[in-house]
Amino acid sequence: MTVTDHPPVVRDALPPEPPASVAPRRRRKRNPATWVRGGGLSNLIFLAPMLIVFTVFSWSPIVQSVIMSFQKTNLVQPATWVGLDNFERVLSDPNLGTAIVNTLYFAFLALLFGFPIPLFLAVLMSEVKRGKGLYSALAYMPVVIPPVVAVLLWKVFYDASPNGVFNTMLGWVGIPPQPWLQSAATAMPSLVIEATWAAAGGSIIIYLAALISVPPELYDAAEVDGAGIWRKVWHVTLPQLRGVLFIMLILQIIATSQVFLEPYLFTGGGPNNATLTILLLIYRYAFQNSLGGDYGEATALSLMLAIFLGLMSWAYFKLTERWSTN
Amino acid sequence: MEHQLTTSVSSDAAGRRALIGDTKPRRKKVRKSLDDEADRGVLSEHERRRGGVRASMTGVHVVLFVGLVVAGLGPILWLAKAAVTPTQDTLQHPFELWPNGIDWANLSTAWNDVHIDQYFVNTLVIAAGSWLFQVLVATTAGYALSVLKPKYAPILNMAVLATMFIPAVVLLVPLYLTILHPPVIGTSLLNTYWAVWLPAAANAFNILLVKRFFDNLPREVFEAAKTDGAGPFRVFWSIVLPMSRPILGVVSVFAIIAAWKDFLWPLLVLPDPAVQPLSVRLPAVQSQTELDVFLAALAISTIIPVALFLIFQRLFLRSAGLGGAVKG
């Protein structure tokens, strides 16, 4: 009778004997034939596609980006080490301040519009008894439209003439036509409205999933304590969503600090640099330079942005860690 | 690389990572939310029967429904209408239904004269290749890391996961230079689809999804197959792949949608208009195209993603709840 045939209680009481004492282990000789027979070769064959694409297109570019930020590279002459020159030049670029302020402004407006609206809609949608699938599908529709098409379509909507789509709609309720993308003051909010419209569906689906997992007993208990509808939302629903809300907040900060498509396609950073964002600035350094790409400056700036984003993620993990231990 | 260089307020490498912690349970819950009702929500049965609550819930329903139709469906319907409307009508009376008749010729002009046909095919080729390489890399790597488990698997696992912490923007320039001067081959990949397909395949999120799925497959099946004399290739092809259809569906949706949406990366590595996808060509042709034809081109570019969504709605919404990150 072997150890494993004992009933569970006995097995727990008696630690199994180490197999080494049953049959003395023989150290196998390492040679190519045993390696192949042991599955070493087939392991490598299955790993090869991943190893190749990750080495060439992920791991080595990551290392390269650190190296390049300390070099001067323009593809014509061989790269030379320049120390912190790239960082100094980026930090003294008057456009950097503008880009940072604009990106923060975009992130702020995106939070202002893009955080409460999907949450509010999701809470309402979760109370719908029939046809929830239809509601989810309608809400998700804008996410399915390719972003480039969405931006180009909204550019038509934002036509500043009184007959433009949005200006006509404003006319119905007696609001005068707006310049939308044409003026420095309204350009950024216009970008954010489109971005919020395009992304809200995804957030709604995530909130809906989280709302499903709120334990119904909590609502029952709140009712026993005499809580009304709003108090239930405030004291049960929102605290239960705290985790996913925080995740979405961090995600949105990380995404908005890399915003590129909207400013690039809507306004090209204009009018008068009012929508120049950090990523647009990186793109200009590297790919829109008449003197040839300044890859050093571009990688230096993206490295600084990445460090900021890394700090964000780190703070996020620290905070969630503290919350989960409390 | 994460292939999401076109960051709208949307997906991102770091974003995906944050949500993986609870992928497994969430997937089931999302499906539940779509198929059947939860036991209860904020409102109790008792409250639902109260007159005031009932009336305001009806009001909420109507507002919610109208709002979602206007915001979700409105722009698409307007685009469909504008695609077959003469330019002047769209400009002067954007909300009137064809005051001067329907102009079907917009669609054929866009398709033939603006060469949307060619860009459409380019987009299909890019999406198909990205899908193929992403599925190939994710399934083989997932199988090796989860089932074969060589001794060094944990190290590789860490190295793959670590790339999810790197924002895509860091890779932009060095990856572009890698495409210009790839190792070993010695010839530039610029203007070839390899430049889009291969970086897209280096997607850590896919590998993680597939590996987690494989981790939960019953080990007994593999053991039984092994005792029956099946080698690692046979087990992969005849047992693991057929069992992993659900997760392959999710990875496929992510891959195809991401390829259809990607803008910045193909813009950089495919400078030749003849090989560019729709997302890159549409902004470029805008200035030389009449508005009605351009709107027809936009409408044509939207058809495939919208059709895919309508057909595979459940899979899309499940994936959206799962990744959270691939909101776009």
TrEMBL record, chain B:
<dbReference type="InterPro" id="IPR035906">
    <property type="entry name" value="MetI-like_sf"/>
</dbReference>
<dbReference type="GO" id="GO:0005886">
    <property type="term" value="C:plasma membrane"/>
</dbReference>
<feature type="compositionally biased region" description="Basic and acidic residues">
    <location>
        <begin position="32"/>
        <end position="47"/>
    </location>
</feature>
<feature type="transmembrane region" description="Helical">
    <location>
        <begin position="293"/>
        <end position="312"/>
    </location>
</feature>
<feature type="transmembrane region" description="Helical">
    <location>
        <begin position="155"/>
        <end position="180"/>
    </location>
</feature>
<feature type="domain" description="ABC transmembrane type-1">
    <location>
        <begin position="120"/>
        <end position="312"/>
    </location>
</feature>
<feature type="transmembrane region" description="Helical">
    <location>
        <begin position="58"/>
        <end position="80"/>
    </location>
</feature>
<dbReference type="Pfam" id="PF00528">
    <property type="entry name" value="BPD_transp_1"/>
</dbReference>
<keyword id="KW-0472">Membrane</keyword>
<comment type="similarity">
    <text>Belongs to the binding-protein-dependent transport system permease family.</text>
</comment>
<dbReference type="InterPro" id="IPR000515">
    <property type="entry name" value="MetI-like"/>
</dbReference>
<feature type="compositionally biased region" description="Polar residues">
    <location>
        <begin position="1"/>
        <end position="11"/>
    </location>
</feature>
<protein>
    <submittedName>
        <fullName>Carbohydrate ABC transporter permease</fullName>
    </submittedName>
</protein>
<keyword id="KW-1003">Cell membrane</keyword>
<feature type="transmembrane region" description="Helical">
    <location>
        <begin position="119"/>
        <end position="143"/>
    </location>
</feature>
<feature type="transmembrane region" description="Helical">
    <location>
        <begin position="235"/>
        <end position="260"/>
    </location>
</feature>
<keyword id="KW-0812">Transmembrane</keyword>
<feature type="transmembrane region" description="Helical">
    <location>
        <begin position="192"/>
        <end position="214"/>
    </location>
</feature>
<keyword id="KW-0813">Transport</keyword>
<keyword id="KW-1133">Transmembrane helix</keyword>
<dbReference type="GO" id="GO:0055085">
    <property type="term" value="P:transmembrane transport"/>
</dbReference>
<feature type="region of interest" description="Disordered">
    <location>
        <begin position="1"/>
        <end position="47"/>
    </location>
</feature>
